[in-house]
Each structure stands twice: as C-alpha cells, then as structure tokens.
Amino acid sequence: MKIDDILDARAVLPDFKATVKKQLLQDLAQSLAGFVAVDKRIIFETLFTREKLGSTGLGQGIAIPHGRIAGLTKATGMFAKLSTPIDYDAVDGKPVDLVFALLSPDHAGADHLTALAKISRIMRSTVAVSKLRATNTAEGLYAVLTEPVITSTAAA
Fold first, then answer.
1. Which domains are assigned to the chain?
2. Model pTM greater than 0.85?
3. Which residues contact 119 (CB under 8 A, 6 or more apart)?
C-alpha cells in the first residue's frame, strides 16, 4: 500500500485553522465528508469516540486521528498542516501541528492497520516531518507525503 492509494492530492490542507481539538476533528470530519459518502456527524463521532479511548497525538507535534466506518469502500486519508499548533492531549504534552486523519471500512481490520503503519512511518521520519514543516503548499505537502522512500531515523 502506498500513501497515494489513500490520500487524494485534494485532501491535503495547508494552513488549516483550528483552535481546539474538538473543533479540529469537526472541521476534518466536514472536509472528509466531501471525499466519502458518509455524513460529517458520523465521521466526527467516529474520530471523537476513538480519541476518548486514548489520544492519537503521537508526540513531536503529530496526530493521526482514525476510525472505521460502515459503508466505506476503501481507506481514505486527509492531511492537515495547522496554521497554529493546538493542544491535543498528545503523549508528550506538546501541541500538534501535523495531522493525518484516516477513515477505513469497518471490515478492513488488517488494511486499516497497514495504512496506519504506513502513515506512522512517514510521520515519525525526521526528514519527512522537517520537509512537511518547511512546506506551505498543498502540492508540496502531497509530494513529501507520497515520496516512495523516506530515508531517515525515526523521530525521538
């Protein structure tokens, strides 16, 4: 699986504005609803319910909110670079500025985990994260996210 299998170039949002985690998830849900045939409220509830189990804020300013939804036919992602970092209850307590949301079909257990692992590898790459933070256009962000091989050590 490659990132461009789940991430459409139009689903990369530079300069995304949110001030709190709940608003971020609501706004992502609204944006994601434009790519999948699912109501934004269902998407929000899925993401929000997952957050109640434990924060998807991985640390180092990165979050990967995710969930599975009945009726989806394939995994769909959305990447947002926040204009201002927000408190996300991340494991390291640091604010989040890079968010990669993932929705998968409810029956896609292994595929969901594979997609999460792929996203996580990219988002833990110090090279990729540095490039993402230095890039301000949707096209540039998409190019970084879809690079075939990102060689670096994992972020600490």
1. 3-145 (3.40.930.10)
2. yes
3. 3, 64, 77, 100, 102
